Amino acid sequence: MSEKISIFVENAPTPYGHFTQAIKVENHVCISGQLPLKPEENVLVGDDIESQAKAVFHHLTAIMQGCTGQLSNITIVRFYLTDLSDHEAVDKVSREFFYFVPPARTVVQVAALPFGAKVMVEAEAELNPVEFKGGRML
Fold it and tell me: Which of 73, 81, 136, 76 is nearest to 108 (CA)?
């Protein structure tokens, strides 16, 4: 059975419940819902959707780097918005971070998010597999 590894990085908020920032199993990474919180204080980065969206993308970046990956390894993102009219602003920020082939995406409106956040994002990624040459792992 494959080992399940808990991922924790200092540049993303500490989980406020009984869960981890991310779980890695072989080359697959599942990133828990990221809220737009200041990592050192666990308070919202601001009230506007743009600053909140940028914060969750910075958290995704930090977690992917903690897994020896990068945003381009993300295969799907799921956005949870408290107001679907914020979708356009989140999409604009998304284009800044996913300037390459974007991942698959789901956007869902929810009644509320923890800490009064306007956006939360979770993601899944596939890390680059170990390269094989001549029947040996490198």
Answer: 81
